[in-house]
């Protein structure tokens, strides 16, 4: 497996492999089983799988955890090799944002709600780095986890709108056996916080049970999460029941929905969601 640091080397790699189909998994490192499932899928679906490891400064707000974001590059590279990736691209910040860099990619309305409202500028940073990475790596398909569901929809919309020619594939959330969605930020959780965080997936699973029992009004779905997290030490930032394609908040009964949440557990901010009435593969 190659580890490349320079854009020019990645371009050469892609020229040399021009006839191979390439699956791409962009990451910020601190890889866990959720990332592993994306890399395995890219390896399975393509001649070559490429992983990028880059903690992207422009998607963090001024008071967010950019400096503290977990970094363990040698463990990440070893994991990529074990999983069968052909190449890891791990650039320095100046390689991706050279001196004088000023261009930004501004996604549309789908990026303004939920995470976009809670973290102003976040999706502009995500769209900008992914536009750069897609143009450097030139993948046929790129793989994203459902946990960051709005990110998946923003990137699918961006790839379509900008005619990037990259198929953006959503992959299921990987959960610990007790239900907690895997996240690089879970390693910030104390034992007490981790126990409290279980209320999040339990609330979402309760919303899914209600849906399976025939509930179609959005309020009971949102309320299930609120009720499960009440008094648990988890502080909900938002709970949403939205259309899974547009992410517009539902105001009447619907035949498909994504119930999503963001919450603070101690100092850690977590997100999670469940998809109802539509399969992930139908979302493109
Ligand atoms: O989901 C992430 O880890 C990041 O947002 C991504 C897609 C690698 C862009 O920096």
Instruction: Tell me, rounded to a whole number, the average pLDDT.
Output: 97
Number of helices: 9
Overall CATH architecture of the largest domain:
3-Layer(aba) Sandwich
Q: CATH topology of the largest domain, which one?
A: Rossmann fold
Low-confidence parts = none
The neighbouring-strand order within the major sheet is 1-4-3-2-5-6
User: Which class of secondary structure composition applies to the elements?
Assistant: alpha/beta
Provide key terms for this protein.
Pantoate--beta-alanine Ligase, Chain: A,domain 2; 9 helices; Rossmann fold; 9 strands; 3-stranded antiparallel beta sheet; 284 residues; binds pantoate; 2 domains; globular; 6-stranded parallel beta sheet; alpha/beta
What would you say this structure looks like, in words?
A 6-stranded parallel β-sheet has the order 1-4-3-2-5-6, with helices on both faces. It has helices at 7-16, 33-45, 73-83, 93-96, 115-118, 122-137, 149-161, 191-212, 218-229; strands spanning 2-4, 22-27, 48-53, 87-89, 141-145, 167-171, 234-242, 257-265, 268-276. Helix 6 packs across helix 7. A hairpin with a 2-residue loop joins strand 8 and strand 9. The protein is globular, with a radius of gyration of 19 Å. Helix content is 37%, strand content 19%. The mean pLDDT is 97. The chain has 2 domains: 2-171, Rossmann fold, CATH 3.40.50; 184-282, Pantoate--beta-alanine Ligase, Chain: A,domain 2 (2-Layer Sandwich), CATH 3.30.1300. It contains 9 helices and 9 strands. With 284 residues, it is α/β, with parallel strands linked by helices. The chain starts with a strand and ends in an 8-residue tail after the last strand. The site of pantoate (PAF) has 10 residues, from strand 2 and helix 6.
């Amino acid at each position: 497996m190659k580890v490349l640091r320079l854009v020019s080397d990645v371009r050469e790699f892609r020229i040399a492999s021009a006839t191979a189909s390439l699956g791409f998994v962009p990451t910020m490192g601190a890889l866990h089983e959720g990332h592993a499932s994306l890399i395995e899928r890219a390896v399975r679906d393509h001649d070559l799988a490429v992983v990028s490891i880059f903690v992207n400064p422009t998607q963090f707000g001024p008071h967010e955890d950019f400096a503290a974001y977990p970094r363990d590059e040698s463990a990440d590279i070893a994991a990529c090799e074990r999983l069968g990736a052909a190449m890891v691209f791990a650039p320095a910040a100046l390689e991706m944002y050279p001196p004088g860099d000023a261009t930004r990619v501004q996604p549309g309305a789908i990026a303004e709600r939920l995470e976009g409202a809670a973290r102003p500028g976040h999706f502009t940073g995500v769209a900008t780095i992914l536009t750069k990475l897609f143009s450097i790596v030139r993948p046929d398909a790129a793989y994203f986890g459902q946990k960051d569901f709005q990110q998946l929809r923003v990137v699918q919309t961006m790839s379509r709108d900008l005619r990037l020619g990259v198929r953006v594939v959503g992959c299921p959330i990987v959960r610990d056996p007790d239900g907690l969605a895997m996240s690089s930020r879970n390693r910030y959780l104390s034992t007490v916080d981790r126990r409290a965080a279980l209320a999040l997936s339990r609330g979402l699973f309760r919303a899914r049970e209600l849906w399976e029992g025939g509930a179609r009004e959005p309020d009971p779905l949102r309320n299930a999460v609120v009720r499960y997290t009440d008094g648990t030490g988890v502080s909900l930032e938002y709970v949403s029941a939205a259309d899974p394609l547009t992410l517009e908040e539902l105001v009447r009964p619907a035949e498909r929905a994504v119930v999503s949440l963001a919450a603070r557990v101690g100092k850690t901010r977590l997100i999670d969601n469940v998809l109802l009435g539509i399969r992930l593969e139908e979302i493109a």
